[in-house]
Amino acid sequence: MKPKLSLIMPVYNAAKFLKRSVDSVLNQTFDDLELILVNDGSTDDSLSICREYEKKDKRVTVIDQKNAGAGPARNRGIEAATGEYLAFPDSDDWLDLNCYEICLKKIEECDADLLVFGVRTYVHGTSEEEVTETREETVSPVSFHTKEECRANWVSLHKSCNMNSPCNKIYKRSILAENDLRFPDLRRMQDGVFNMYYYDKISSIVVIEENLFNRSWHTNAFQNKKLPKDLLRCAIAYRETALSCLKNWNADRIEGKRFFDLLFLETIHMMEFIYGPQDVKPIALYRHIKNINNDPYVHHFLREWKKSGNALRKKERLMLHKCNFALAVWRYFR
């Protein structure tokens, strides 16, 4: 008998947190589910932990693959899933034990194509044990019941709740199957692009206020280790997908473009002035900043941003300067 809910969890070197995450799924008050663990080429004990769960719980299936990233891992899970609904929890986060009972009841009650719930974030300091802040990112409950309503409120939803992550959502597997939807081959921001693909196909959405998903947020130094070299390409793909949606839907085009332009602008800052390369030898720093500063897409974006009457901060002015590289390196070290 097919389960009501399929949960797809990509696993990569998550041995330290994996049991907490898997237990939060298998101990749910809603138990009509299957858990598909996709080991993405882990080099620690993650695969053996996954196999242990597979042996002791018939609801668990393990898929082992070479490292390809979270997107391809989730795609393998989508192909193996049999449930009516899909969810995508992460292997280093965890869920409230009544999460899926609440969500499945609500999505079926509303007959919605997508359900979004709230997120609770634990901000860590220099160690995993040190929690410096807890953020309750509660959202206001809303529901839209036509494709036109969904599209008209797309930008406002982005402003009020986490619309990029797949971890705080419930999807209909039939919509993915009918439209052959998959996560794109991007090392970052593939979640947001996938959600745009899915959102393009839906006619109803419900957002509930309960914070049911728990995640840890670490210091920049920790997050920096996970950043891919092609982050700029990922950011460009995300922005272009968003602008394409706005154009096709004719929804909030002016406000929406400004919203996604601001996101792209902050991503540039993050890449160049917060997340420098781990190896800060001069040659590594040279290549890192040069690749961003000399990118024609970035230059065109900044020029258009300025033409639209938006002020450029000193960082952006440096990037447009004819000596942008030398100035940017100087600014970086300051």
Description:
With 334 residues, this protein is an alpha/beta fold. It has 15 helices and 10 strands. The protein has helices at 18-26, 46-56, 70-80, 99-110, 147-152, 154-160, 173-179, 190-199, 220-224, 231-249, 253-274, 282-293, 296-307, 314-320, 324-333, and strands at residues 5-11, 33-40, 60-65, 85-87, 94-95, 114-124, 131-137, 142-144, 169-172, 205-217. The protein is globular and about 60 Å long.
Question: From the alpha-carbon coordinates, what is the Rg to the nearest angstrom?
Answer: 21 Å
The largest sheet, given as strand count, sense and whether it forms a barrel, is: 10 strands, mixed
Number of strands: 10
How much of the polypeptide forms β-strand, as a percent range?
15-25%
Average pLDDT metric: 86
Oligomerization state? single chain
The count of helical stretches stands at 15
Number of separate structural domains:
3
Task: Give the helices and strands as they follow along the chain.
Answer: EHEHEHEEHEEEHHEHHEHHHHHHH
| Poorly predicted regions | 221-225
Measured distance between first and last alpha carbons: 62 Å
Structural class given helices, strands, pairing?
Answer: alpha/beta
Shape: globular
Helix content: 40-55%
